[in-house]
Amino acid sequence: MFGPSLLARFLQVVGEPDKWGNRWQYNSRSDRHSKVGCWGIALDLLTTSTTLRAHVAARKVVLGVNHTMTDFATGRKKDLDLVIARPGGPVPSGVPTFSSLADRYGIVLADDESSALEAIPPFPIAPVGATLVALEAKACMTAHVKSLPRLYDELNSSHLCVHGASRQALAIGYVQVNAGTEFVSSVSNNFPLDKMEVRVTKHRQPQDTLRVLAKVAEIPRRSASSEVGFDGVGVSVLDFRNDGGPVVIENRPPAPQPGDTLHYDSMIVRMANEYDTTFAGI
Q: So what's the pLDDT on residue 194?
């Protein structure tokens, strides 16, 4: 699987300057981490599911970027970073593709990732019809315990909206958790860093990471379209300080282990299989 290492490599490069001129690897007011996280999931799904690749080659599906889904019952709206869907109409020639998002987002690919991407048929970004797969990524990088109600509510509202719009759609939730003992927060350092002393937040590890993982495990998951919850949930545990230093994928406990329900690879394998069985006949 490529997603976690691709995300960690991306976060090692700082983003655009904020209003104070500070450049952050992770900025809570930016969605760069969620966009790239979802792009990595899509790459892994396309690599794992032969059915999805065949649908792309046959132009049966398109990609929706920043797509707004509406819960049919309540009218609740939710913006999703990426969705895989039936076309909303004829797909014009020359439209951007999934591959072009790597350049748009500034993703630098390793050789094996580039090879995997080149093996995928052109996947157009086009107006969306019926949504088949909806991707949502959220991060919990600092103030872990304080962030838990917001994290839970945002994820819970996501699958409710997706399935309120389409009971058959597969809703995927991806959570990025920081296991570092120190963190330089863009919120706590809301001033020019070149003029004032940097404020460093201390974390209680591994307790903070364990609290987040326990809360994520409480999020409803479903195994049938008649139930309520995400169809797949995955977690990547990162270790970084947000000061321009290295971003490390933490594979040791308390990070989910291979075979665990929340392990990233388990999420991809499950979602590829669910896609293959649910949408084989489209």
A: 86
Polymer length of the chain: 282
CA separation, residue 202 to residues 67, 144, 166 (Å): 36, 11, 42
> For residue 252, what pLDDT is reported?
96
Q: Cα–Cα distances in Å, from 69 out to 155, 157, 169, 232, 277?
A: 14, 12, 11, 18, 24
Residue type, 203: H
Tell me how many degrees the CA angle 218-220-35 measures, rounded to the nearest 5. Answer: 90
Diameter of the chain measured on Cα atoms? 61
Burial of 111 (0-12, 13-18, 19+ CB in 10 A): exposed
Across 2-31, b (16+ Cβ under 10 Å) vs e yields: bbbbbbbbbbeeebeebeeebebbbbeeeb
Chain centroid to CA 12 = 17
Strand locations in 168-218 (E):
170-178, 182-183, 201-202
Q: How many whole angstroms separate alpha carbon 44 and alpha carbon 25?
A: 23
Q: How confident is the model at residue 77, as a pLDDT?
A: 87
- Residue ranges, the chain, pLDDT below 70: none
User: How do strand 232-239 and strand 170-178 relate by DSSP bridges?
Assistant: parallel
- Distance, in Å, from the CA atom of 160 to the CA atom of 215, rounded to the nearest integer, reads 17
- Residues 86-97 pLDDT 10s: 999 999 889 999
Helix (H) or strand (E) holding 154, with range, is helix 144-165
Calpha distance 18→13 (Å, rounded): 15
What pLDDT was estimated at residue 161? 93
pLDDT value of residue 76: 86
Sign, Cα dihedral of 26, 13, 254, 270: positive
pLDDT on residue 195: 82
